[in-house]
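Below is one protein, fold included:
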Amino acid sequence: MNKQTPISRIDEKARNYLLIMYALNGAYFFTIFITPIVAVILAYVKQSEWEDSVYRDHVAYIIRTFWVSLLVFVISIPLILLFGLGLVTLTLIGVWFAYRSAFGAWRIWQYQGVNPKLWLELP
């Protein structure tokens, strides 16, 4: 879905569900990465239900954001111990995760789609 394409079929329940998932992602710093696990589980639950709707890109966006962040987090831990470089990568992935969570929430709030394949989508 093009980022300029508005959501044509509005399902307020689905939209609110996505906003909750984005809010859970946004609370990651305060919950030591527990709420994003809940958000990604909810995304997987809704993935097949929304497969043929405009909300599937948002679900894929949440899932991809989670797994990329987790991978970088796991890679960063040994880098902290070995080189101290892990602190930089952890900071960058934290900022990236927060940006994608806020951006996705803003887009669904505006009734617009996202492109889950882009690493950094700008408004």
